[in-house]
Write a structure and sequence with these properties.
By secondary structure, the protein is mainly α. It has helices at 2-41, 45-74, 83-111, 117-148. It is extended.
Length: 150
C-alpha cells in the first residue's frame, strides 16, 4: 500500500508545481505586456487608470470567446463529420468572427472615453510588437534548448 501512495503523492506534487510555474509565467508575461503597452502608448497616470480596466475586461472577454471556440473545434471529429454538421460548424465559426469584431468595436468605443484616438491606433501596433517579441523570444529559447540537447 505504501508503495502505491508514495508515487501518487509525488505525481500530485509535481502536477501542482507545474501548474504553479505555468501560472507564474503567465502572470510574468502579463506584467511585461502591461509595461510594454504603457510605455509604447506613453500613458499618463490618469489615462492608465481609465485604460487598464477597459482593456483588461476586453482581454477577459476575448479569452473566454477563444477558449469556447477552441473547445468546440477540438471536439470535431473530421472522420465522422457529416455535411450538415460541417455547415453548423461553419455557421458557428462565422458567429465567432462576428462576436470578435463586435468586441473589438466595443473596445474602441470604450477606449475613446479614456485615451485619444491616436493612442488607440498605437495600441494595435504595440500589441503586434509585443506578440512578435514574445514569439522571437520563444524561438530563441527553442534554438538554445536544441543546442544543449544532443
Amino acid at each position: 500500500m505504501k508503495q502505491l501512495i508514495i508515487p501518487i503523492l509525488a505525481l500530485l506534487f509535481s502536477l501542482n508545481t507545474f501548474a504553479q510555474k505555468r501560472e507564474y509565467i503567465s502572470e510574468k508575461i502579463k506584467a511585461q505586456k502591461v509595461a510594454f503597452i504603457t510605455e509604447r502608448l506613453n500613458l499618463t497616470s490618469e489615462e492608465a487608470q481609465k485604460f487598464w480596466p477597459i482593456y483588461n475586461a476586453h482581454e477577459t472577454e476575448m479569452q473566454m470567446l477563444r477558449h469556447n471556440s477552441r473547445e468546440k473545434h477540438r471536439r470535431i471529429n473530421f472522420e465522422t463529420l457529416s455535411e450538415e454538421e460541417a455547415k453548423t460548424r461553419l455557421t458557428e465559426l462565422m458567429a465567432y468572427e462576428k462576436e470578435e469584431q463586435r468586441l473589438k468595436a466595443d473596445l474602441v468605443n470604450n477606449l475613446l472615453t479614456a485615451i485619444p484616438a491616436k493612442k488607440i491606433l498605437m495600441l494595435q501596433q504595440a500589441e503586434w510588437s509585443f506578440k512578435k517579441r514574445m514569439l522571437d523570444e520563444m524561438r530563441k529559447r527553442k534554438k538554445e534548448f536544441r543546442k544543449k540537447t544532443p
